[in-house]
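Attaching the record inline, Q. Sequence:
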Amino acid sequence: MEVRTTAATQETDAIASVKPHPSFPPTAWVPPVRSLGYSLAAGVLFIAIAWLWIKRKDQ
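Structure, as predicted:
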């Protein structure tokens, strides 16, 4: 027969001491925004190169 108690044990104290982490920390937005910035910069660079290339061909 199993005896159950409501007394605190080391295991329940350890579980109670765990603090939940926020699901979306404030610094989590940095990598996606940085990636978007690099992508936009690369896009603008390649548009400028294509525009210069086409402009040179027309001359």
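The mean pLDDT is 79. DSSP finds two helices and no strands in the chain.

More tomorrow.
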